[in-house]
Specification:
Order of helices and strands: EHEHHEHEHHEHHEHHHEEHHHEHHEEHH
InterPro entries: CoA-transferase_III, CoA-Trfase_fam_III, CoA-Trfase_III_dom3_sf, CoA-Trfase_III_dom_1_sf
CATH class of the largest domain: Alpha Beta
Oligomer: single chain
Pfam family, one: CoA_transf_3
Organism: Collimonas pratensis
Largest sheet: 6 strands, parallel
Strand content: 5-15%
Number of helices: 18
Helix content: 40-55%
Protein name: CoA-transferase III family protein
């Protein structure tokens, strides 16, 4: 197996719950050594609140316990930073400064350190000290306004787009860019990622609409949000649904040929009331077969129709299986890095660490702590 792409990169991860750990999980999957720093009493809250989620996003990491409220633990962190490339934290702005280990202090110890601060609203602005969760960031970014039926209230998705895409993946991108820069210049940087910022940046379609019309459009009225009858969701005979995404004329023509309805091609294809007749005709048509029957009929007809699966069904999708996106361990599904490289094989993530399982080994290796010192630190509660 080829060497992992981030081999030799060491990451100290002080984050908790979902966004930060998901970010560092990707770095670990790419070959970085990720050391998860947790409080001695209980560790990451997700260990108790959502143990299966914790397992999914913390595999392949090491766990070290440090109580950064104690000066001894802060000194240990500073020693570890000397041998570290990246530090990730998700405290509110200013917390690390109060603990005596903020960016301005740590960069004096290690000028090449990439310090990533992943927060809800970033390090500046009137909201920077506010608490928040995925739903809050989606609300402020205009995402919730665009979800749900056209004539109903906003609907909260079961997919954490702000936490994962706006936060974790945006942060990982910033870290990788900063690491490349630090390798070239010898100088690290503060990577300031706000989940509201990252989520708003994903609103490309809405921003394009505002640029074009001077204002956003209501949900369900935009071309790519269900406004067009040939780009919409339809119920089937069995109560399940299909996604018809025949946006380009050639795909819609292929669809009409496949279902033996050439008359549909001539019907007005427009958003809103202009396409009402076609939408009604398509709704009646899709109710004549089950979801799986439609998939079987249209799978090879190049017309962009797919059944809408629940998450459990998605795991069994033959395309998902063929790509090796999900594997089963102890009877439970695990996801690995969803990226393939032509000349580099990426190993599956290792085991999820028990709380503090690597404290002794990591502190001996990075901070020069011997067994006697380790026992004293443990007795004081610093580790």
């Amino acid at each position: 197996m080829a060497n992992p792409l981030l081999s030799g990169i060491r990451v100290l991860d002080l984050t908790r719950l979902l966004p930060g750990p998901f970010c560092s999980f990707y770095l670990a999957q790419l070959g970085a050594e990720v050391i998860k720093l947790e409080e001695p009493q209980g560790g990451d809250y997700a260990r108790m609140l959502a143990p299966e989620l914790f397992t999914l996003v913390n595999r392949g990491k090491q766990s070290v316990t440090l109580d950064l409220r104690q000066a001894q633990a802060v000194e240990l962190l500073k020693k570890m930073v000397l041998e570290t490339d990246v530090l990730i934290e998700s405290f509110r702005p200013g917390v690390m400064d109060k603990l005596g280990c903020g960016y301005q202090i740590l960069k004096q110890i290690n000028p090449r350190l990439v310090y990533a601060a992943l927060t809800g609203y970033g390090q500046t602005g009137p909201y920077k000290d506010r608490a928040g969760h995925d739903m809050n960031y989606c609300a402020y970014a205009g995402v919730l306004d665009q979800t749900g039926a056209a004539d109903g209230a906003p609907v909260l998705s079961n997919f954490q787009s702000a936490d994962l895409a706006g936060g974790a993946l945006t942060c990982a991108l910033g870290i990788l860019a900063a690491v490349i820069g630090a390798r070239a210049s010898g100088q690290g940087t503060l990577v300031d990622v706000g989940m509201l910022d990252g989520t708003l940046a994903l609103q490309a379609l809405s921003l394009a609409t505002i640029r074009t019309l001077g204002e956003s459009k209501a949900r369900g009225s935009d071309v790519l949000s269900g406004g067009l009858p040939n780009y919409s969701i339809y119920a089937c005979a069995d109560g399940k649904h299909v996604a018809l995404a025949a946006l380009e004329p050639k795909f819609f023509f292929n669809f009409c040929q496949a279902v033996e309805r050439p008359d549909l091609v001539a019907m007005p294809l427009a958003p809103g009331a202009g396409g009402a007749a076609l939408r009604e005709a398509l709704a009646d048509l899709f109710k004549t077969r089950s979801r799986d029957e439609w998939e079987l009929l249209l799978a090879e007809r190049d017309c962009c129709v797919s059944g809408i699966y629940n998450p459990q069904e998605a795991l069994a999708n033959p395309q998902v299986r063929a790509r090796g996106l999900i594997r089963v361990e102890d009877g439970k599904p695990l996801s690995d890095l969803p990226i393939r490289f032509s000349d580099t094989a990426v190993a599956a993530a290792g085991a999820c660490p028990a709380l503090g399982a690597d404290t002794a080994g990591v502190l001996a290796r990075l901070a020069g702590i011997d067994d006697i010192q380790l026992a004293a630190l443990a007795a004081s509660g610093a580790i």
